[in-house]
Design goal:
34% helix; 259 residues; seven-stranded parallel sheet; 10 helices; Arc Repressor Mutant, subunit A; globular; single chain; 25% strand; alpha/beta; Rossmann fold
């Protein structure tokens, strides 16, 4: 299937049937390079058929232009502060130890975390986001628990009361949590209200709570409050964080990593 039109038809049909595709699997199936598949997926993304995620793509769900500016879209967020997000995740991965039980939150920062986790160490990983799962599922050293539930295509998150209850009943060594806003007075917030209970459960069920947030999120307020900075043990961000927030975090006794 070296012909591009045939590849595009195959990828489109697979998206229609499964809702998602994996770059490596397509590369093997169609006997072309992963770079070729990426170019094919870029074309489908431009045609509003596919939405690119880490390691693959999902079937695009359209959003009306008049509402798009008010909606959190993971495709928008993925293009922001990429280098900083990757450095944050590289630092976060260095804190993971063999046999840890970890929770990885939804978000465009945490989707980079799997690529920096040492592939040879045994881990139990609890997650609830498609883009995070895509970066993990091929590693046989990882025991992966996907909580499941209703799929939100704007964040790639699976969410349900049952998933929240599951997280509440388990215990983890570390939780890697993301935020869309961090404010000194109004706390740590996310862009959608349906994320709140899952994030709270992950924080409450974990021994060490680690906030992964690039510097643009500090001083920003989003609609849904789920924690305060004092609820975290560690904050990992980039050097662009305002000095007043550096001082505030340190005054709270929180360990701060700047990358």
């Amino acid at each position: 299937m070296a012909n591009r039109r045939d590849r595009i038809d195959y990828i489109t049909n697979t998206l229609s049937l499964r809702g998602l595709v994996n770059i490596r699997e397509l590369s093997d199936k169609l006997e072309v390079s992963e770079m070729t598949i990426r170019r094919d997926l870029d074309l489908l993304a431009k045609e509003n058929i596919a939405q690119i995620i880490h390691g693959g793509a999902i079937l695009k769900k359209s959003i009306s232009p008049e509402n798009e500016k008010d909606v959190y879209l993971i495709t928008k967020e993925e293009s922001q502060m990429i280098r900083e997000k990757m450095k944050i995740c590289q630092m976060a991965a260095s804190l993971i130890e063999p046999n840890d039980i970890i929770i990885i939150d939804t978000g465009t920062t945490t989707e980079h975390l799997p690529k920096f986790i040492p592939p040879s160490i045994p881990l139990t990983i609890i997650c609830f986001a498609l883009n995070v799962l895509f970066g993990l599922y091929e590693n046989k050293n990882f025991k992966i628990i996907m909580t499941g539930g209703y799929f939100h295509d704007n964040t790639l998150m699976f969410e349900s009361p049952e998933g929240v209850e599951f997280i509440k009943k388990v215990r983890a060594n570390k939780a890697f949590i993301t935020a869309a806003g961090v404010d000194e007075k109004l706390g740590v917030t996310c862009a959608t209200t349906y994320e709140v209970e899952t994030k709270k459960a992950a924080i409450e069920s974990s021994e060490t709570k680690i906030l992964l947030s690039d510097s643009t999120k500090f001083g920003k307020i989003r609609i849904a409050h789920f924690a305060d900075l004092k609820n975290f043990d560690i904050v990992i961000t980039d050097t662009g964080i305002p000095e007043e927030y550096q001082k505030y975090i340190k005054d709270l006794g929180i360990k701060l990593y700047l990358v």
